[in-house]
Write the structure tokens for this entry.
Amino acid sequence: MAMRNSVQRILALMRKEFLVILKDPRSRVLLFVPPILQCLIFGYAATYDLNNVPYALVDQDRSAASRDFAARLDGSGIFSRVAIAETTEAAAAALLRNRAVLIVAISSDFEKDLMAGQPGRIQVIADGRNSNTAGVAQSYVATIATGFGQDWRVAQGLSGQAVQVTTRAWYNPSLETRWNMIPSLIGTITMMMTMMLTAMSVAREREEGTFDQLLVAPFRPTEIMIGKAVPSMVVGLLQSSLIFLVALFWFRIPFAGSFAVFYLGLILFLAAAIGMGLFLSSIARNMQQAMILTFVLLMPFMLLSGLMAPTENMPAALRYFTMVNPLQYAIAITRRVYLEGATLNQLLPDMLALIAIAVVTMPVAAWFFRNRLV
Amino acid sequence: MTGTSTPTGGARRIAALIRKETWQLLRDPSSIIIGIVMPLVMLLLFGYGLNLDVKNVPVAIVMEESTADARGAASGFELSDYFRTVHVRTMAEAERLLLAHRVNAILRIPPGFARQVQNNDAEIQVIVHGADANTARISIGYAQGAVGTWIAREAARGRLLAPASISLETRLWFNEANESTYFLVPGLIVLVMTLIGTLLTALVVAREWERGTFEALFVTPARSSEILLGKTVPYFVLGMIGFALSVIGSLLLFGVPFRGSFLVLTVVSMLYLLVALGVGLVISSATKSQFLASQMSMMITFLPAMMLSGFMFDIRSMPRIIQMVTYIFPARYFVSLLQTIFLAGNVWSVILPNAAVLAGMAVLLLALSVRLNRKKIG
């Protein structure tokens, strides 16, 4: 009987929460359109792969070999020649003004050296203002140079290199950042929206004074918590499913895993994120504080999640911090299920960590609902 | 212009409004958190936590024969700073490690390697985990380099045919040390100023609309431009404090080189802060709700500042339509300015056009926000 009453109360509260979220047409639009737009825009934008590298050519050799090399750069589909200069100094202006990312300078003895069996010398100067772009661009030149060197030897009737290095990339054969980025966006975008939604929901009631009414009504803190958590969970699952659909049907990234494991991971992740949102919400005095606290927490979560830079590179102290970061686990789970088809067994540690975060934050939030020291 | 509204009256009213806003700001600890604590935390996170340089890639070495040549080829990996090697017996074991993310790459030296080397037809396999495409690509480059070192050494002793016949001398201008911190930390200033400028302002003004206190201000003789000025000045100051903290931190803690002039840096940062404040004011007066304002400011300022500004990801490699989109967001211009002023110096051909766009945006947005906040009861 008490149980049934409790369920009834929770249902009533949930209905009210859904009304609050969905009654404003602007907030309806805001909850479901931006995730799709963000996934599309960031899916295209957030990539470390380069497909348009403007470069300045300095050909001091003007030989058949040097022209052949430059033609290979131009024909790669990656490099586009924006300037031709006599000297490296003359080409420097293009780099300085952001017109070119690279200067490729072919030395005056290029062909002669090659004929003599010496390595032909090429200088590659890159704009280090973004050292990542620069490094990737330089590695593309290196790949083209290796291919050129081997073909040139064969063309001259010499045998190729003695030892070949063949490379393969598993789970992402053409090495596209997008394959890795978009499954990670499912967790990232959903986390931002749901954590904010949850954190704001209690804070809004506090600010409007309706939370006190809720507390004097026959609701137990646990019931309030469930009533607040479930609507956010539903919104979060809808959002992540929308992004998932964009990944499958727009970006056409093949899904290698099991839907059940994937959604189990998402539900646990949302529970952890919502738990954190509720906790922040329970200690904030008003909406502004709730929002700022959420932001201050979201930012390191996003930066240290492995979304943009690998977590292995972090110093030990920050790796401890990432242990309480739900997004880190979510990204590991979604990527591995999505791309590698990882099984529940392999993901158990990540899933348990998410459960632990939810199990700690939710009761603490419920306690703070009533016992917050104002 | 009424008779009572003399210039001194205006100045007095503005001063009073600024005083009121400043008190409000100082009394709320969350403003201090976002203005002072957050820039410092972000500085540490960016400086120490976000590192795009690839080092110590864990690699499993599978030697399917144990000859001097096979060991020689593997030695390039053991000696390299870029790799951390583990030896395993079978390919199956290596695959298991790769799948468990215990290693990021496998180096396989197939049986018959030494004999193939004699015939100038040997093959070494490198398999990388492709999930993190950027790290994978860089690891492949290092792997080729590591094998190349061994080949070159053997070639010098006349044992092997000469390696690839091109020698590349690579240099990195403006960032000789190849430190990703050097471009990430200046980029952080963009995020700090965006957060303080837009997010905080949007919330503050939206709250006044929600509570109806904005309408209370309307019945006072203060004009709406004066009210807005009173609102923006304290947040402008807070933003500049955040800016100063980030600049000092990036120079002292991370030794980011600074090759431009501080005056130019300060001026363009003020311009960007004005733009950010303008966006915040426009958002708040357009939505008049804290919840919507917070979601909007996150979506149209913070995320684009991170993803579409060229701070992490190269704009030129984005599809054309996304490139067009990046022109709308002010962060793009500011990132360009910061990276140039910090690492390259006062390059006027970069600074002037970008600063001009920011100035134009600031004027436009501030004018728009005065218009949107005209004294009317909605």
Summary: Chain A has two domains: 13-46+176-371, 53-155. Chain A touches chain B through 108 residues (CB under 8 Å). The radius of gyration of chain A is 28 Å. Residues 170 and 201 of chain A are 44 Å apart (CA to CA).
